[in-house]
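Attaching the record inline, Q. Sequence:
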Amino acid sequence: MLTDQPNVERRLHALGLELPPLKQPVAKYLGCKQSGDVLYVSGQIGDIRGAVGHDVTLDEGQQCAREAVLHILRTVKTAIGDLDRIASVDKVLGFVRSAADFTEQPLVLNGASDLLIALFGADGEHSRTATGVLQTPFGASVQLEMTLRLKPE
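Structure, as predicted:
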């Protein structure tokens, strides 16, 4: 029953979304690391592959950014147990695998930002960097990392 779910997960379901299976780190790093009330979340990729502006459309790039957010939230939920412990999304760092002449990386990352605001309201508003890159892990169109602030336990 949806009313038994935490608020963030209710919002996910209301948007027709669900958290994907956990992706284990593929090298020697942690999925996230907590320092006081700050949680640093390692880079996660979406499932769409290819360069935005060449193989992938702007809309598909935005979808990939949303998928990366969902993978981050799965990592966070596994680490802290409850997404409602997130007090705020402080920073999003995004890498967009881009065609040489593609310059709309901020628009691609709006896919992630819009989802975070839909899930967390004003607490989902964040500072952000959108950078175009030649390549990302496994050829993904978008890779994101986040810095989150947690509520006290």
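DSSP finds three helices and five strands in the chain. The mean pLDDT is 95.

More tomorrow.
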